Amino acid sequence: MVENARLRSWRCVGAFLLVLLLAGGCSRVPKIIVLEDPLTAAEHVELGVAYERKGELDLAQREYERALRMDGKLYRARVNLGNIFLAKKEYGKAREEYLRALELRPGDAEATNNLSWAAIFSGEGIDEALARMESVVSGPGGRHPIYLDTLGVLRMRANRPGPAEEALALADSLCRKAGATAREGVNNDAPCPEEVLREIAEHREELRRRFPSPSPIPPR
Questions:
Q1: For every residue of 70-115, which 3-state class applies, written as one string?
Q2: Domains and CATH numbers, the chain
Q3: I want to staple 101 with a disulfide (CB 3.0 to 4.6 A). Which of 31, 111, 198, 214 is the partner?
Q4: Tens-digit pLDDT profile for residues 70-112
Q5: Cα angle at 78 between 87 and 168, to 5 degrees?
């Protein structure tokens, strides 16, 4: 009898403790808290640029995508995201972003130029990119060494060596002229970067290798 009473007593205590544990467990269930993003879309782009300059492409991509989720019509985020995909050699995705950027700013020189390089690297869409780039170069502000260099490479890829050399030679001339006038203090424009001049020279050399000039016929 005593043992049965003790058993019943322990059962009651156990049941009481179980109730307390269950009650305590329910009280510890975490509440779902929704935090607002403290950054604006433009600030996400700025953060992405900072990551990109440090070579942290995945983090930069994340910030550009966050910016676009907040504002899908943010031109700078579209172009920058395209640049990330271009650097990652994801040319199809880069092309998509540049085309979306061009929907926001039709005929934009920067987006067109970068779209052209997606075509050059992938080997796809050369003719379309060439037509777009021809339009940019013939428009206001289009006679820029960087754009002319891109046009020259596109013409080379389209097997048009003569027009390609014409564009590259003009790019080289304008680049050197910009550097000379900047050194002389004639204008306040930034000089043409040395790396651009080197790239132009490399592209002209590539053009010569692809389309060597025929050997002159020796006189008789």
A1: HCCCCHHHHHHHHHHHHHCCCHHHHHHHHHHHHHHCCCCHHHHHHH
A2: 42-106 (1.25.40.10), 111-212 (1.25.40)
A3: 111
A4: 999 999 999 999 999 999 999 999 999 999 999 999 999 999 9
A5: 55
